[in-house]
Write a sequence for this structure.
């Protein structure tokens, strides 16, 4: 399955996941539930996701390193400050929060089942290959960072 590594950009994976969440919510209306203040809650979680993802992009831009998730070998520096001192993958955390907000908005328990699928896919086909590249580029420095800062949260 290595042929899938670093092939599908994570924003595309998130959009596909969101479409599947919508589809499953439509085919399985029996899993619908009511959430008071659904729109407010979904908006708050989506805003948190957007802020988290943007913080990751801005920090990479300030460090003058690539944000292209399909070319981690183009990384010019190991970013360990700012939001990257809290999570090694703020852009993916932001996408997960946006998908969580979408699931809340859909108000269907079946839609929530795709959140772990998103995490598993991103871990296996995006983060693990990225981390292999970072380990080869930055060696002990990345190993120390990896031991200190969690992959997600």
């Amino acid at each position: 399955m290595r042929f899938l590594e670093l092939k599908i950009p994570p924003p595309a994976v998130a959009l596909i996941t969101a479409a599947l969440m919508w589809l499953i919510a439509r085919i399985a209306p029996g899993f619908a539930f009511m959430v008071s203040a659904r729109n407010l809650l979904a908006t708050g979680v989506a805003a948190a996701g957007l802020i988290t993802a943007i913080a990751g992009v801005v920090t990479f831009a300030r460090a003058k390193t690539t944000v292209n998730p399909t070319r981690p070998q183009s990384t010019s520096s190991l970013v360990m400050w700012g939001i990257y001192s809290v999570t090694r993958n703020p852009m993916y955390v932001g996408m997960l929060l946006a998908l969580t907000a979408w699931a809340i908005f859909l108000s269907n328990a079946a839609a929530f089942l795709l959140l772990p699928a998103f995490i598993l896919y991103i871990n296996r086909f995006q983060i693990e290959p990225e981390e292999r590249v970072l380990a080869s580029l930055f060696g002990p420095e990345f190993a120390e960072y990896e031991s200190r800062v969690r992959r997600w949260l």
About this structure: The first helix runs from residue 10 to 27. The radius of gyration is 17 Å. The chain has a mean pLDDT of 97. Residues 36-148 form one domain.
